[in-house]
Model the fold of this input.
Amino acid sequence: MKAPPATISVLSQMLPAELECARKLLDTLAAEHAALIRGDADSISAASSLKLRQMKEFQCLLSERNRYLARIGFPPGKEGTEALLESGPLDRPTRENWEELQKMALRLRDGNDLNGGIVALEQQHVQQALDILTGRVGENQTYGPAGGRSSGHQSNSLAKA
Done:
């Protein structure tokens, strides 16, 4: 399918907004990471709330691009965007914006995975501390069919308050 130049022009107007949103999201992930490292609960909460709002905004921009692609007969997402770029006249700035957005998407994924790993590690530390406090140290912990932890023994509290 050969796309008229006007279709690429619309895409070229969409990508800068997506790039700006991705940049803000990267900054927020960095702030969230720093807060997680410091263990600053208020900053973690603020960064997480901001990240959620920015992700919703980013999703709206992606949905807008997908609706546009569908309207002009292209599949959604990366596949459709690539196809549109390949079908029209060479538009270097739009191509460069698209490539930058792809790089940023990888950085966003990696940053979010890193932050998620920190949270998971902290949850494990909290669970270990709770196990010590409730007297479940050294018990053989297993996972049930639903993925939840279970043990073969009843816990014994070390103290009651």
The helical segments are 5-38, 41-71, 77-87, 92-133.
